């Protein structure tokens, strides 16, 4: 091939990865390391080989971590740039985004999709080759792959609007593979259908004992699938369907909010009763992630810190929010993010994680998110007096140590703003803020677009405000451009996103 390795054709090719030690022990899939490649023709002989490729999806999902932060947070108002921020971070933060910025690369997500497509296509063929591979287990593995593929596409579609929809692995270099964009509508319809069909086959859990629950949290269970589906429904303005998906999780009885004293355990240990889907690392297997260096760093040059807006939300009331000092933020004069680096609350015995233990999970979904999504959907459905939203926010504030009465919202917009503020307090640096703001603004044909503009203009200098306002007046600017490597690799078939088509490079 003549094209760069980042193009979709290369990423969708089946690179069958032999992953060592998958079946060796109860938690051994966290130890996965690429070993060698085999061709498609010689692979797919046993259920273990299907599981190997399925597990490689999770390995590849780890490679998306930087994008989870950049795509989900940089353009929002929850984080500010620290002294360790890169030039590309700065450009995205100030909306100076060109299609040569590597933050716009989507290759890691299509690698996840490629692995998932391979499991879905080739897994059923193994039923004829391995008598120990049951139809039930094969269906569960395929469903798990579908869930992971759907999550990858949900991140892509919220970030770029339209992206190539690929549901088959690519194996033949001699065949053309120039893939145009697919509309957001078609992608959302696809992943909603996929998830609804997959959920009955998804396992409700994987661990054999309640104490060994990391695998239940680290793999795409039925409840993780429902959480993803609820999020998609909320984005897609299908509010009753969102409520129904959340109700499935609640009715499972498997999850609950952590109490006030144990909130930090969401991150300090991870895999708590509040966690639904967490991307796992294992320090003892030399699997440390970059969250420590990005949000704290030994040299005190963090890449990202809490914004003034975030600190203001925490300090708006007279009482201290336990999610503030020594939990999310180090202290009032040090806005570094603590949740990913501490062993407990700073000032109450918590210390910085030592080298070898810097392996905090990345939490995609937890129970607080489910409760807040459900409340938001009910607000949009017109629930009288916004009773659910009021109660959920009250419960979250109560576990954060508040006793001050929560003012009742007056009207739908106030209720949505109350939920947005609470989501910012609860999910700082968890990759949600930009998508929360965008979801708020775009519903009902961009009903709250001007509110989004004002939120993003807050703190922008008077000199820069006209430029920012002009950019933000076009809703197409809310999506990232497709990286130039993809445009060049797809031989004129892949068109640049509208806002960036006339920008000279």
What are the SSEs and their pairings?
Blueprint lengths: L7 H5 L3 E4 L14 E5 L8 H16 L2 H9 L5 E3 L5 H7 L13 H16 L12 H26 L23 H15 L15 H5 L3 H14 L3 H14 L12 H4 L6 E5 L11 H5 L8 E3 L1 H7 L14 E3 L2 E4 L24 E5 H14 L6 H13 L12 H15 L6 H14 L2 H9 L7 H8 L11 H6 L16
Antiparallel strand pairs: 1-2, 3-5, 4-8, 6-7
Helix pairs in contact: 2-5, 2-6, 5-6, 6-7, 6-9, 7-9, 9-10, 9-14, 10-14, 14-15, 14-16, 15-16, 16-17, 17-18
**What characterizes the major β-sheet?**
2 strands, antiparallel
Helical/strand content category: mainly alpha
Mean pLDDT: 90
Unreliable stretches, pLDDT < 50, 5 or more residues?
1-6, 17-27, 32-36
The H-and-E topology, N to C, reads as HEEHHEHHHHHHHHEHEHEEEHHHHHHH
| SS element count, helices | 20
Tertiary shape: globular
Q: How large a portion of the residues is in β-strands, by DSSP E?
A: 5-15%
Please state the CA-atom Rg, rounded to the nearest Å. Answer: 22 Å
Helical amount among residues, as a percent range? 40-55%
Describe, in plain words, how this protein is organized in 3D.
With 505 residues, the protein is mainly α. Helix content is 44%, strand content 6%. It is built from 20 helices and 8 strands. A hairpin with a 2-residue loop joins strand 6 (329-331) and strand 7 (334-337). Helix 5 (107-122) runs antiparallel to helix 6. The longest helix has 26 residues, at 135-160. It starts with 7 loop residues before the first helix and ends in a 16-residue tail after the last helix. The relative contact order is 0.13. The model is unreliable at 1-6, 17-27 and 32-36 (pLDDT under 50).
């Amino acid at each position: 091939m003549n094209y760069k390795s980042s193009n979709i054709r290369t990423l969708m090719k089946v690179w069958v990865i032999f992953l060592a030690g998958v079946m060796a022990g109860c938690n051994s899939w966290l130890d996965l390391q690429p070993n060698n490649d085999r061709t498609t023709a010689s692979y797919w002989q046993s259920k273990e080989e299907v599981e190997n490729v399925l597990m490689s999806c999770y390995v590849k999902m780890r490679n998306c971590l930087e994008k989870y932060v950049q795509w989900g947070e940089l353009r929002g108002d929850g984080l500010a740039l620290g002294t360790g921020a890169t030039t590309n971070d700065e450009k995205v933060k100030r909306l100076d985004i060109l299609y040569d910025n590597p933050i716009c690369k989507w290759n890691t997500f299509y690698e996840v999709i490629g692995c998932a497509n391979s499991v879905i296509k080739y897994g059923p063929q193994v039923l004829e080759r391995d008598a120990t591979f049951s139809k039930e287990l094969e269906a569960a593995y395929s469903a798990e792959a579908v869930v992971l593929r759907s999550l990858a596409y949900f991140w892509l579609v919220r970030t770029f609007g339209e992206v190539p929809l690929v549901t088959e692995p690519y194996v033949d270099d001699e065949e053309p593979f120039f893939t145009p964009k697919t509309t957001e509508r078609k992608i959302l319809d696809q992943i909603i259908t996929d998830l609804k069909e997959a959920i009955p086959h998804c396992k409700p859990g994987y661990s054999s004992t309640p104490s060994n629950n990391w695998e239940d949290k680290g793999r795409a269970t039925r409840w993780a699938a429902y959480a993803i589906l609820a999020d998609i429904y909320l984005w897609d303005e299908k509010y009753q369907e969102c409520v129904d998906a959340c109700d499935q999780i609640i009715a499972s009885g498997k999850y609950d909010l952590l109490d006030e004293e144990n909130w930090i355990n969401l991150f300090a240990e991870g895999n708590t009763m509040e966690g639904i889907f967490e991307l796992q690392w294992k320090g003892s297997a030399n699997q440390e992630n970059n969250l420590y260096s990005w949000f704290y760093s030994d040299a005190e040059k963090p890449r990202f810190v809490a914004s003034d807006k975030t600190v203001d939300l925490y300090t708006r009331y007279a009482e201290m929010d336990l999610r503030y000092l020594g939990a999310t933020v180090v202290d009032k004069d040090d806005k570094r993010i603590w949740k990913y680096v501490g062993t407990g609350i700073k000032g109450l015995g918590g210390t910085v994680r030592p080298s070898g233990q810097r392996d905090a999970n990345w939490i995609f979904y937890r129970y607080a998110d489910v409760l807040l999504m459900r409340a938001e959907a009910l607000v949009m459905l017109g629930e009288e007096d916004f009773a659910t939203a009021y109660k959920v926010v009250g419960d979250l504030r109560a576990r954060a140590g508040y006793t001050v009465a929560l003012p009742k919202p007056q009207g739908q917009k106030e209720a949505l703003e109350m939920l947005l503020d609470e989501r910012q307090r609860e999910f700082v640096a968890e990759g949600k803020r930009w998508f929360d703001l965008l979801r708020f603004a775009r519903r009902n044909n961009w009903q709250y677009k001007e509110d989004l503009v004002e939120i993003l203009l807050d703190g922008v200098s008077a000199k820069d405000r006209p430029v920012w306002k002009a950019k933000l007046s076009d809703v197409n600017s809310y999506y990232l451009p497709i990286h130039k490597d993809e445009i060049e690799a797809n031989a004129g078939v892949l068109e640049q996103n509208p806002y960036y088509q006339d920008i000279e490079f």
